[in-house]
Amino acid sequence: MKGKGGALGTYFVLNTGAKIPAIGLGTWQSGGDLCVQAVKTALSVGYRHIDCAHLYGNEVEVGESLAQAFNASLKREDVFLTSKLYCTMNSLNKIDNYVRVSLKNLGVSYLDLYLMHWPDISAFGDATDPPSKSGTEYRQFLNRLKKAWKAMEGLVELGLVRAIGVSNFNIQQIKELLKFAKIVPAVNQVELHPFWRQDELVKFCQLKGIHVSAHTPLGVPTSSPGTSDSGSGEDEPGTPRISFKRSRSVHGPMLKLSVVSEIADKLKKTPEQGILLSGVQFTTYFICLQLGGAPSLKVLFEGYSSVGITERNKCPTL
Predict the structure, then answer these.
(1) Contact, 188 vs 210, CB < 8 A?
(2) Which of 83, 232, 285, 289 has the greatest count of CB atoms below 10 A from its CB?
(3) What is the pLDDT of residue 19?
C-alpha cells in the first residue's frame, strides 16, 4: 500500500476509507510534564497522529495537551487518535467501559482507531515472539479472542471508535481472527525496523488489506528507563509494564549500518531520518519520546516532511 500525498505529508488510506498519517508520535514510557510538553511540541510542528494506550498510564497527560491544542487552533478532526485495549480476563465483559475510560482521560468523544494491544491476554515480553502453546491453551486463546473481537466490533457500532485493529499479532493469529471477524482489522501495529523487518508479515497484511504500523522503528535507546514514570489516570491494579528487549539492543547498531548512512547521505538527512524515509512507503511509523525529547521530535518531523513524495517513494527499503 503506497503512501499518498497530503497537506501535512504522506498518509495512507485504511480499509475503512479513513486517512492515517504516515508519521505519528508514540507515547510509550512517557509521563508527567515530559509527556505534556512532547505532545504539545509534536502537534505544534505538524504531527497529526498520536498513539496512546491504556497500558501506558499517561492518557490524562496526552488529554491535557490535546485540550490546549483544541482550545487554540486545532479541531478534533485534525488529529488522528489511536489507543489500545489492555485485555484481561476480567475485562472481556466490559470492554466498552475500558474505551470509555480512555475517552474520558483523553477528553474526546471518539477514537479514530482502537487496537487490541496483545493477541494473548497473558503474554508479555518481546512483542513478536509469542510463547508456544499446548492445544488446550490455544483453544482457550481462540475463545477469548472471539469474545474480545466481537466486543471490539460493538464499539464501532456504538460510535465510540471509527476503526478497530490489532497490535503485535503474527500471521497465524491474524488468520484465526479473519475466520470469524465481521470487521477486518484496519491496522496491525508491530515492532518493525531494519533489524526486524518481518517481510512475510507485512506482505500478508497488505494482501488482506490490513495496514501495518511500526512501533519502535528506531529501536529504544538503552539509557531509557525500563518502566513508565507515569501514573495518572484510571488504571487497573496489577497492570504490567512492557519491555521490548530487541528494540533496546538495536538502537545504536542500527544507526551505524552502512545502508542507513548511504540513504542519509543521499538525502542529506540524519541516520534516524533516513530510516524513517526508507520505510514510509508501506507503513506508519511512530516516533518514541525517548529519542531525545521534544527537540528531536521537531527535527525528525521536519526532516521527513521536507522530502517530497516522489523522492520519498524512490528511497530504497532497508
Answers:
(1) yes
(2) 83
(3) 95
If you search the block for the grid coordinates 496526552, which residue do you land on? 62
**Distances, alpha carbon 132 to alpha carbons 86, 136, 166, 204, in Å:** 21, 12, 20, 21
List strand residue ranges (DSSP E) for 86-186, in order.
113-116, 164-167
- For residue 174, the tally of other CB atoms under 10 A from its CB is 20
The whole-angstrom separation of Cα 136 and Cα 14 is 35
* 186-190, 225-229, 248-252, 263-267: least confidently modelled range: 225-229
Q: Do the Cβ atoms of 69 and 79 come closer than 8 Å?
A: yes
Find the distance separating the first CA and the last CA of the chain, reported in whole Å. Answer: 17
User: Quick check: is 110 catalytic?
Assistant: no
Say which amino acid occupies 21.
P
Q: Give the pLDDT confidence of 10-44 residue by residue, as tens digits.
A: 789 999 999 999 888 888 877 788 889 889 988 99
Active-site residue, from 47, 56, 114, 285: 56
How would you classify residue 156: left for phi > 0, otherwise alpha for psi between -120 and 50, otherwise beta? Answer: alpha
Percent of the chain with pLDDT over 90: 37
Burial 90-129 (b: 16+ CB within 10 A, else e): ebeeebeebbebbbebbbbeebbbbbbbbbbbeebebbbe
Match 488522528 to its residue by C-alpha cell. 80
